[in-house]
Structure formats: C-alpha cells, structure tokens
Design goal:
The complex is a heterodimer of chains A (115) and B (110). Chain A has 115 residues and is mainly beta. Chain A contains no helices and eleven strands. Classes of the chains: A mainly beta (115), B mainly beta (110).
Chain lengths: 115, 110
Amino acid sequence: EAQVTQNPRYLITVTGKKLTVTCSQNMNHEYMSWYRQDPGLGLRQIYYSMNVEVTDKGDVPEGYKVSRKEKRNFPLILESPSPNQTSLYFCASSLSGSRLFSPLHFGNGTRLTVT
Amino acid sequence: SQQGEEDPQALSIQEGENATMNCSYKTSINNLQWYRQNSGRGLVHLILIRSNEREKHSGRLRVTLDTSKKSSSLLITASRAADTASYFCATDDPGNQFYFGTGTSLTVIP
C-alpha cells in the first residue's frame, strides 16, 4: 500500500532532550516536506526537500534540522526541544520535484509535547 | 508569507445542503489544491486546479479559481455527515514552497 509513515504517533519529552521523528515513503517520491500544525495558524512548512541531498528551509525552520540521505526517508530532528515546539507534526511527499506540483500525500501525524 | 485564508472559519449545515468555502491567497501561483482533514489526522488531497483553469469538478466537488482576484472556492453539493472535516486550500510559489490556508471547519448535521 502506498503510504507515508511517521513515527512515533505520540511523543512526550522534556526541554533539551534531543529527539528524531522519522518519516518514510514507499512511492519513490522526489519531494518531501515537514509541517507543523497549531490552532489558528494552519499548517506551516518547516523544511522541504526536492530530492536526495537537497533540503531547504520553509517558513518556520528555527530549532529543527532535517536530512535526506535516501529518497524514501526524511527525518525531522529537534536538537534541543523547547515548549514552543509542542505541536502536531506532519510529513508529506509528492511525486514531482518540479514547480508543477503533484498532490501531497500526508502521514498520520506526530503529536509532540515538550514539557 | 503567502499563506492563504479560508472563509468562513467554521460552517455548520444540514445534511443534504450545499457547502461553500472560499480561499484567498497573496501572490501568483502555478496551481491551487484543496485538502480535507479529519480530526487530528493527515490531510487528504481532494482536487487540484491549475492556474490556467477556471473550474473543475470531481464527484460532488466543484472548484473555481479566479486568478485576477486571487481566490478560489470549493463547493460540496448534497453534503453528508461524513463530509464533516476541516478543509484547506494550498498554493505553491515559484520558490517551490507549499502554503496552506488556515482552514474551514465544516460540520454537517444529520
């Protein structure tokens, strides 16, 4: 089944403890992206990747890192999480890395709480 | 930021009625997409309309795009309780970033 898989679904952690949220897609998609969703703010893009070894900042990259060593994986790393990073996170992928975007396929989300 | 805005923020209708929600955006686009999100779950793509198209249909969905007004509308006809969800518009920009609106929360009352 074609899908985007995020893990974990729920994560509670403490300030400053490094964490990684994994994202994997099995559709051979070129484009992958991370979003955070907060009430009243909609979805905001954190980082995106047009293809392997190519990553770029989105709207809200501060406090996050990503890597794209393989086409299928796009992990989100919080080196030193803070409470303002408590949010619902989504990974998404798309077939096309060009400007004429094909639809995004989303994972089921990771709800992160930083205390 | 090019983030779009949906209007209204919330909409409540009776089953069988039509639901219309609007999206406005700020700069030129290649295409505009509509997505649906059930509570706390990932977004699901509904329909894509390219900048050179004015109207598109998919089942009970009808999307219009007016690039001169930088706006789009999504019409859901003959709504069902299962249509209850949040609906988001999304646009891309020449910098390859994707921007989502803040969403319309639709409640369809059986």
